[in-house]
Write the structure tokens for this entry.
Amino acid sequence: MNSENARIWIWLTQAIGYNTSKIKKLYSLYPDIKKLYYGGINEWRHSGVFTSSDIDKLSGKSIELADYIIMRCKELDYDILCIDDEQYPRCLYNIFAPPAVIYISGKLPDVDNRLTIGIVGTRSATRYGLKNSYQIGYSLSKFGVATISGGALGVDCASHRGSLAADGVTVCVRGCGINAPYLRENASMRRAITVKGAVISEYPPDEPARNYYFPARNRIIAALSDGVVIIESGAKSGSLITANLALEQGKEVFALLGNNSPQNEGSNKRIKEGSAIPITDFFDILNAFDSLYATNENVDLQDISFDDIEAIPVKGMKKPKSKTIKPTQSQKTEIENTETKALPKEKSKNQASVKKTVDSKADKLKLKPTHKENVNLSDTARAIYHYISLEPVHIDKIALDNNIPVFKVLAAITELEINRLIEPVQGRRYKLKPEE
């Protein structure tokens, strides 16, 4: 950080605002922003960037406020990253209105040179949404992917906690100052994030939350992400703003398949209109970025545990008992005073990096009824038919274990049901149909 330049960029944001394309124009005109500041009113007028109202605001704004903000950052041990710093992310600069200044608590990962995935969704998440947010954050982190979210109640919080449980890197982009008391429920989580990742904001440390800050914040989440995943989004959810911004920025957008509840109205609509890729798990996301992530032969995703799902704050639900997340010496996190519940185990065959354990062939045969083998089936349907037993199996697991895209699994499942070879079980699970 160039402290002299930083105070000028901060002064500019205090005068003309945060979410404005004028910042990018000023940087292109003034590689050294000091020339603009010390040029005074004449320079401001001749720059061609400012309106008369802007010039009045610049004239009336003292740079002492910027000095105070810098002092507060030093007190709180926050870093300041300005648009003219070498470390400023290119992906952030490339958007229409990049922030002049980013305040950072922790360590911002090298977002330009590693795979990053934004995870967004409703604050009023269901258990299904929380579970999937957590699992996707956890699993992506195990593959070295940095996750990005907004630290809000519900989906955001669950995805951050999943990454923390995997000892991964996650970035929380706040719609207020980093030190603002907004969402005290997640304060311990934000502290844990800074151990390996970062909590960031374009707003000064103590700036309170304002309604219009959050839509503006979403452009930063989209910019820092190579792809954005929507998990449970209503028709007018703020997460759809992030998805729109990601599409405008040329990013991939994914949406978790869900039922027809109001929580999924927005995300399901995106899938139907073709503006979002449907997914059922993290592996569908990695498949879209096959050349951008490195596998790890030691990854084992079978033992994902969910630290008391009821402890994750959700808008509209009764506030849970106070629980704290603290980073350990190994930089893992745990929720204090909670009971842990085991999640259903998941595994993947597509990558050598994911350990797969399968029941013995003899055990499988014991569970299989004798069906006629001369039924005319597609290759995919036949493979799934030989995989399924009398023990119910979730559709996500079928896709993962057989390395078959979910949409092909759905088609094969329909084919097998028509031929009366399998039958559905509650919870998107299927099993072989007993002989008639």
Observations:
- The longest strand covers residues 101-106.
- Confidence is low (pLDDT under 50) at residues 328-370.
